[in-house]
Amino acid sequence: MRLIVISLLALFISLMLVIAGNSYLMTLLGVRLAEVNTAPSDIGWIMTFYSIGFVVGTIFAPRLLIRVGHIRAFAALASLASIAALSYPFADDFWTWSALRAIGGLSVAGLFIAIESWFSAVASENNRATLFSLYTITAYSASAGGQVLLASEASSGQATAFILAGLLLIAAVIPLSVSRLQSPPIEHAEFMTPQRLWRKSALGVFSSFCAGLLISSFYALAPLYATLNGISKADISTLMSVSVLSAMALA
Predict the structure, then answer these.
(1) At how many degrees (to 10) do helices 9-35 and 158-171 cross?
(2) Nearest Cα residue to 128 out of 113, 138, 116
(3) Each residue of 82-109: pLDDT tens digit?
(4) Which of 72, 76, 134, 251 has the fewest CB atoms within 10 Å around its CB?
């Protein structure tokens, strides 16, 4: 098991950078939208477009992986997510930010699919549970670390805050690009339609929908609520970090 983790070290580092950058950006957007007095309905839709893009990404990403392989697909999607993050300061209108959130959701969905399918390809029956436990711990820890960045000096400027998010996302390309890690073989699988998935596990689909509804609402709107009530960025970062770590402890 130790040898497997060492061989996948580059993948773990890339995972941490992606999640840290994405979680930091999500919290930052809630704070910035509150600071510029954006209408609550507009904020809700802007945040919703991330989920819309995420759903589209789950359909698009497997085709990209089959076409170019895991490493190239990861590099392309991380670059796209970074471009979206760096583009926020150039415009602050509703449709531009909604489009950028959709692009970010699409990219991050593809990155998760690439990483998780990679882990699945190298895992065996003996180490699968342990490997994915480490994956979950790494993901939650990186998310909590990303929240801490909100309290840093880099998040005080309009542009520099988004630059920091973009740097984290594009930096995720480096570990995989310079490592000797080989892309896993791609297995062609039958597309799982929503109807077929519902027939196989209706309870699982319903539970996932409810959990996603609650979790996405909290992480998207908690920073907004805190900002509107005059809570400082340092306290918001602490609140979000503790929330993530609590979720990890109960997972």
Answers:
(1) 160
(2) 116
(3) 999 999 999 888 999 999 999 999 999 9
(4) 251
pLDDT band at 170 (very low <50, low <70, confident <90, very high): very high
Cα(62)–Cα(190) distance, rounded to whole angstroms?
Answer: 11
Which one-letter amino acid corresponds to residue 158?
Answer: Q
pLDDT in tens, 110-156: 999 999 888 888 777 788 888 888 899 999 999 999 998 888 755 56
pLDDT at position 223 is: 87
**Cα-Cα-Cα-Cα dihedral sign, residues 140, 112, 14, 24:** negative
| Calpha distance 154→160 (Å, rounded) | 6
Helix (H, G, I), strand (E, B) or coil at 28: helix
Strand, coil or helix: 181: coil
* pTM exceeds 0.85 for this model: yes
Look-up of token digits 């297995």: 187
- Give the position of tokens 């490997």: 131
Burial class (CB in 10 A: 0-12, 13-18, 19+), 169: buried
The residue count for the chain: 251
196-234 pLDDT, tens per residue? 888 888 888 899 889 888 888 888 788 888 888 888 888
Give the C-alpha separation, 244 to 133, whole Å: 16
Pick the closest to residue 45 from 120, 96, 1, 112 (CA basis).
96
Q: Where are the alpha helices (DSSP H) in 8-39?
A: 9-35
Structure tokens given for 124: 């065996």
**What CA–CA distance (Å, rounded) separates 222 from 236?**
9
CA-to-CA distance for 143 and 87, rounded, in angstroms?
A: 22
